[in-house]
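Many introductory courses stop at the sequence. We go one step further.
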Amino acid sequence: MEVITGTASNLVPGVVGYVFQKIRRNFSYVYRYRRMVSGFEKKVETLKDKRDRVLLDVDAARKNDENIYPEVNSWLAKADKMIDLELKEVKGLEDDAKNKCFIGLCPNFKARYQLSKKAEEDTGAVDELLQQGQFDKVSYRDVPQPVVVVPPKDFDDFDSRKLVFNKIMEAVKDPNLNIIGVYGMPGVGKTTLVKEVIRQVKEDKLFDSVVMAVVTHTPDIKKIQDQIADTLGLTFKEQSMSGRASRLCQRLKKEKKIFVVLDDIWAKLDLMEVGIPFGDEHQGCTMLLTSRDLNVLSKDMDAKMRYSIGVLEHEEAWEFFKKIAGDGVESSDLLPIATEVAKKCGGLPIAIRTLATSLRNEPPFVWEDALRQLNRPSSSNFIEVSAAAYSSIEWSYDRLQSEEHKQIFLLCSLMGHNVIIEGLLMCAMGLGLFRGVNTVEETRNRLLTVPCQLLPTACLF
């Protein structure tokens, strides 16, 4: 009995103290409502400033073609709701609290209590939002996809190309083949063909990732690494070439199945120096290589399967020529000349495209003059390029509208496939290619204009 009495006597003060604190706290909501509301409003102003700063970062990121993280968008939506709806609700309760009851003789204690309670809860919610809004980054970049540009229908119209294309696709699907080669003379359409292969591979979802790099006759290992890394969304922090190669190799190995296209290989390329794992290093890596030289593919690169691309058959070449030059070539006064001009292209797609584009919609006398010039033997002799094909391209080059256009065309040819405007700008200014142009901005504008005028002639195709 004494134990029970002692326990009860110990509990009573605790219960009384708890009840007193509870009552005191509830009363504090009534008489401290102005302070509660003021504190909440200050927090909301801080939240507004924070939201506006995040919106500036988001706007800048979107202008830079970057994607906004989902959590950032979610945070902005919550912040907007707090600033607009919750603040409006608190303001409504504040107006109620100002109204008195009992014929205006007594303060509205209930409204003040509800107002303070609401302000306290929302202040806590604002604090949490401010804490969540500490973003290191608000956006990310998409991994760029390889740009595959194949002239519409040009590829599909060549039956001879379809046969090679189907064989390459069969080889690509063969898990026992990891290096496949495509070879042929310059301008025959190797790059166009492999780009069509890339398109089909992506459409059929044969690989987890597809990357492509242009090698050229003067391989720049760093540039090749950068082309592949850009497609994979990889950024190098390593300075040494071997460090970059190791990083790229590790990244490629993370792809269970990857398709690597290396275009325009002139000599042996050390794949491990680049950082491309193959064979036992990465059995899920399949490579497609293009070269002018069969020996480069078979001996230097050890391509297990190699496919040759030749010039177009006569009928294919003529149909392709007509398609580009227009239906007018079949008129009675132009057909005999156009047929002879088409023959001078030697079945080479690049020569056909260049010449047919230049002569499209021209009167007969221009065609006759072109044929006369094409019949002249070329003074130059390029290895692997037929005299007829060279002559047709030379004729198109001679007809460029100005010396500026010729100089820029030659400069672009020297700088390779992936010419960068900044590099072109530097060389053009250093060589003084443009007369009457004095500033960097004027040179840039001129430099952007000339290639745009060259594209319709197919010289830069």
